[in-house]
Structures are given as structure tokens and as C-alpha cells.
Amino acid sequence: MALPTTARVVRLTAAPAGLPAPGDFTVTEEPLAAPGPGEVLVRNRAFLVFPGLRTLIGGAGSGLPMPHIAPGDALFGPALGEVLAAPEDGPLRPGDLVTHLNGWRSHALAEAAHLTPVPSDFPDPLALVSAASAGYGGLTRSVGVRPGDVVLVTGAAGAVGTVAGQVARLLGAARVIGTTRSPAKAERLTAELGYDAALVPGGRPFAEQLAAAAPEGVDVVLDLVGGEQLTAAVDAARHGARFALVGALDGQLAPERRGGDAPAVIDAFRVATLGLSLRGFTVLDHPDLEAEWRERLAGWLRAGEIVLPRTPVAGIDRAVGALTGLFTGDTFGTTVVEL
């Protein structure tokens, strides 16, 4: 079979003024080189659309695990692909499924070391195109959920939060509370994903909503938002509560900011007197996490104990619209572009 000689690629064409808009991007047809020594050619099946791109595109933040994206650069991110060509002396063969970070394009060339094979018996390969491992990592590495814990997940309707609530329950949490931006999503969190309560900041003060949902306080917080939700969570914390700070949606969804901050006022006296712990979490600090997550996810999927909600988008031409949909709240769970 003849190998493809071109690939379709999504590129940033202009620095956004505020939240990214469709006019800031273009989809181009570009030459695709033949695989060189040690290179693998992959046809992408799907790639992840994730809010962290706002930070990379906005040029904000420092010490990030990924490079910023400037006008003219191609977008990138987690993807699932099928091997079309691979070195004969390497571990991969045509037809193998792999995950990698060369998303936002139809085809990719990469060294085999940069590709992770998907086991042939994995129950749902597309589930691996998700940021959900960050929630698992925060809950197991940063806070250590214990039986009987009351757990709060902020930003619970996204790729991380929709799975994190289920994981918290599987780890022994007695009560799981989430937050989201819309009443419709709040209803789905409780009806479909086992959240005991789902709060919608805005209108009634959020601190009052949280006090009503957790009258005795919270033991664990998986914070994906920052801002006033983190402030309220500290105020609602019980003695010895543990916080995993995983995301910054408050800044990434704000048109007036660049996605690189999520300021919150923290009561330091309360942190000290109650012995609270607040720890930042990033996947790259835990190189053993991904393999552990894949093993546990496979087991939970086979047992029917977990689901990964998805918002599928068909075709690379709709990818930019899927990205802007993250910021307007038009998605639920993991947003993936399927090719």
C-alpha cells in the first residue's frame, strides 16, 4: 500500500485577542515526508481537545511542561493512531494502535520511543485519549483518598472531573460533590456519574451552596479551577483536609486573562490551624503513573465500574470549533476529534 505524502495540520495563524476564535486558526494540507531510519508513520484516529491549549496559545505561565504555541506553529496534544509503517527491527508493526502527543493532524511521523503501544485487548482504546489520568494521579499521589472521605471535585464536568468523581468513589469516598457551570451538566453529574451533589457557582453564593452540600466540611479537594472555588473549599475544609491542585480553569476560561493564572485568596490562618495540605500536581512529576492508570482503568472498564463520557467531533475541519466549544461550555466529559 502506498504511503500518504501529505497530511492535514491545524496551525495557529494569529495571537488571539481574548479567548481563541475560529479565525485564529487554519487547517492546511502539507507535505508528509517518508519515514526515515527509526521513524514510525502513524495515521491518527482521534485526538484530544483540552483547555490547557488556552495557556499555551496565550503565551502565559512559566515552567510549563509543554512549549508555548506561537502564530505559525502547529497545535499538538494527546492522540490515538494506527501505525502505517515502522522499522522492521523495531517493536511496532503496521496496524498496531499507539498513543502519542502529535495530535491536531491527520498523520504524524515520530520515533518509536515517543509512541506508547495500546494492548490489543484494551477494552476501549479511545479512553486513553483523555486527561483523566491527572485526576487519578491527584487523588492517589497528592491526597490519598481514604474510606469515608467527603471529596469535592471542582470543574467536574470536563475530561478530568467526570472521571475523577467515579475514581474517588472507587477509592473509598463516602460522599462526592462536584461543581460545574450549568444546571444541565450538574444534573448529568448526579444522574449518570454518581455524584451525590453538583453545585453551580453563580447566583446563590458558592460558599453557601458548599456548606449546604457538605455541612460537616470536606476532607479531600481535587481542584481543577482555582479562584473563588478554591477559596470556598479552604473555608469548608475539615481538620487535616488534603488538596490536590491540578488545574486552573478559572484563568483559562476568562476572556480578560491569558490562561496562565487562577488567583485565589487563601485563609492562611485556617490552613495552619487545621493542618491543611495543598499540593500542586503534574503528571510529568510521576513517570510511573501512566502505566498504573492504564492497568487500573482497563480493569474498571472490564468490570463496568467506570465510564468515560465523551463529546465526539467528526473531522479535522471541525476541530477548531471543538476547541472554542470548551470555552463556551458546549461540551461534557472528554472532547475528542475523530478522524
UniProtKB/TrEMBL annotation:
<dbReference type="InterPro" id="IPR041694">
    <property type="entry name" value="ADH_N_2"/>
</dbReference>
<protein>
    <submittedName>
        <fullName>NADP-dependent oxidoreductase</fullName>
    </submittedName>
</protein>
<dbReference type="Pfam" id="PF16884">
    <property type="entry name" value="ADH_N_2"/>
</dbReference>
<feature type="domain" description="Enoyl reductase (ER)">
    <location>
        <begin position="23"/>
        <end position="337"/>
    </location>
</feature>
<dbReference type="Pfam" id="PF00107">
    <property type="entry name" value="ADH_zinc_N"/>
</dbReference>
<dbReference type="InterPro" id="IPR013149">
    <property type="entry name" value="ADH-like_C"/>
</dbReference>
<dbReference type="GO" id="GO:0016491">
    <property type="term" value="F:oxidoreductase activity"/>
</dbReference>
<dbReference type="InterPro" id="IPR036291">
    <property type="entry name" value="NAD(P)-bd_dom_sf"/>
</dbReference>
<dbReference type="InterPro" id="IPR011032">
    <property type="entry name" value="GroES-like_sf"/>
</dbReference>
<dbReference type="InterPro" id="IPR020843">
    <property type="entry name" value="ER"/>
</dbReference>
<dbReference type="InterPro" id="IPR051397">
    <property type="entry name" value="Zn-ADH-like_protein"/>
</dbReference>
